[in-house]
Amino acid sequence: MSFMKKISILVAATAAFMLVFAACETTKQEAAPAAVEEDDLEYQRSINKIEGQIVSKETFNADKAAILKKISELNDIMAKKDYNSWLKYISEDSKKYWSNSYTLLKASEKLPKELKGLKLKNLSDYFNYVFIPSRKGRQIDEIRYNSAESVKAVQVTKSEEDNKTKITVYYNFVKEGGDWKVELPQM
User: Fold this and answer.
1) Is the overall model pTM greater than 0.85, yes or no?
2) Phi, psi (degrees; rounded to nearest 5) at 155
3) Alpha-carbon Rg for the chain in angstroms
4) Does the pLDDT value for residue 33 go beyond 80?
5) How far is the first Cα of the chain from the last one, in angstroms, to the nearest whole number?
6) Are strands 150-158 and 179-182 parallel, antiparallel or unpaired?
7) pLDDT digits (tens, 9 = 90+) for 81-136
8) Do 146 and 47 meet the contact criterion of CB atoms below 8 Å apart?
9) Confidence band (pLDDT; 50, 70, 90) for 4?
10) Whole-angstrom Cα distance, residue 17 to residue 62?
11) Residue 125 main-chain phi, psi, to 5 deg
């Protein structure tokens, strides 16, 4: 093979490689805006219910990270059924409300069929028979602000059949002393 032929083949191979590399780089650059766009859409969904308050995207990202971290920690606590550790994550108002004997009696009446007849006697019973079973194995996808100090942690399920989105709230959080705490739902 002549020297000129070898150079021609080398130049052609280099050009082909550069075209493939450029095509890959273009694809990477085009994919990035779609990810950024979804991130912006989630941010907009998260703040669209609050009026008269501003939550920056940076605050949203920090809050979401903090809340997802707390949920991960709560998952470990629930797996161990560690009531005393769980209490550290619960808002003071929730502790008071769910320690009330009348509240526990009313909640006992609304327990699912498999727990009918069980009487919730204290907050520990609520933790074991209500809190854990209703959240065990749940996936949290997004947070939604009620206000700058109150957030819902939700699972988002999209139905392919009817093209609808279902939002299921598994946690409510409130800012208490600068920290996010679980706010247990009231009846």
Assistant:
1) no
2) -105, 130
3) 26
4) no
5) 87
6) unpaired
7) 999 999 999 999 999 999 999 999 999 999 988 888 899 999 999 999 999 999 98
8) no
9) very low
10) 42
11) -60, -40
The residue to which tokens 């805006």 are assigned: 33
Mind spelling out the 3-state secondary structure of the chain? CCHHHHHHHHHHHHHHHHHHHHHHHHHHHHHHHHHHHHHHHHHHHHHCCCCCCCCCHHHHHHHHHHHHHHHHHHHHHHHHCCHHHHHCCECHHHHHHHHCHHHHHHHHHCCCHHHCCCCCCCHHHHHHHHHHHHHCCCCCCEEEEEECCEEEEEEEEECCCCCCEEEEEEEEEEEECCEEEECCCCC
Amino acid at 169: V
